[in-house]
């Protein structure tokens, strides 16, 4: 196993060469033809059985995140669905805010859910593979969790580096037994798959919140934030040859947060319901101040909704590549809808959601929390 500390302290030029080699290998994988080019439509009816779980009643899940308001709700959503999701750990990465805040916020969220001593949080990569970190503190607030009062976390981080944890866990796991939910920049995931590619066999699926096609970008005209922050990492993950489901902006905007949808969470009599309401209201307030509309996209929690009930979603099997060099299109997710490139299908790209069922599901799971 590659030593993470050594990787972090290696000379910059060596690091860049190492990552360029890895990226070249990943792009070669994207160009392989072994998986065929069938572009099977997946709808919320016809495709439901193919999107659905394989009969295993409870998924083993790790959430790689950068909390972030929507990350916080996704974590609570997963914890409220513990009959279906066995959440083993949170791994954190620099993204919405710097790493020292994302790991702190993850520990605060587990406190809210009463999981202070049972859900480990690991700190990972503080910056992208080859670039400086760009944050979204203007959206999520200076702390990353705008809209709620924060306390000091009640327990420390787990001692391992997040990438070391991912490598060791995947190496030890049975084939196809771990679902990785990646709702921040993909730096930790790409580093783990590059340093120990044999761990990929343990992955049942990677569910990624990232990318945009029909709705275009939210950080540049063509790029979605998570992919734009570390496009090289995203390209490596999409080229890793593992089952990937992408929840892009295309579907997140189809389940908008509105004041009417915030109200039921505020009416819950537990601790977490009003916290979720405050976060959702802060997201709506940001959009009202920025665009004059009282609605906001529902981003990261859609990944958990997909795990709980994939029949709420529809999508399509396609090839997805990431632009890593474009001057105007850096971080764009290029979706080959017609097979024109002849590149192998490498992801399920989700396009549709039953928004009312989604919010009913989210509310019912948040209601189960303390």
Brief overview, please?
The protein contains 15 helices and 10 strands.
Present the secondary structure layout:
Layout: H1 4-9, H2 12-30, E1 41-42, H3 48-51, E2 59-65, H4 69-80, E3 85-92, H5 99-112, E4 121-123, H6 137-140, H7 162-172, E5 178-182, H8 187-195, E6 203-209, H9 225-229, H10 231-238, E7 244-247, H11 249-252, H12 259-266, H13 272-291, H14 301-308, E8 313-322, E9 333-336, E10 347-353, H15 355-366
Parallel strand pairs: 2-3, 2-5, 3-4, 5-6, 6-7, 7-10
Antiparallel strand pairs: 1-8, 8-9, 8-10
Helix pairs in contact: 2-10, 4-13, 4-14, 4-15, 7-8, 8-10, 12-13
H and E order = HHEHEHEHEHHEHEHHEHHHHEEEH
What is the residue-averaged pLDDT? Answer: 87
How is the CATH topology named? Inosine-uridine Nucleoside N-ribohydrolase, Chain A
Unreliable spans are: 1-54
Estimated share of beta-strand residues: 15-25%
What is the number of strand segments? Answer: 10
Structural class: alpha/beta
| Number of structurally distinct domains | 1
Q: Kindly state the percentage of residues in helix.
A: 25-40%
Counted by DSSP, the helix tally is 15
Radius of gyration: 19 Å
In the CATH hierarchy, what is the class? Alpha Beta
Q: Largest beta sheet, briefly?
A: 10 strands, mixed
Calculate the terminal CA-CA distance, rounded to whole Å. 40 Å
Quick one: CATH superfamily? Ribonucleoside hydrolase-like
CATH architecture type? Alpha-Beta Complex
Bulk shape:
globular
Pfam family, one: IU_nuc_hydro
GO molecular function: purine nucleosidase activity; uridine nucleosidase activity
Protein name: Nucleoside hydrolase
Domain Inosine/uridine-preferring nucleoside hydrolase: 61-360
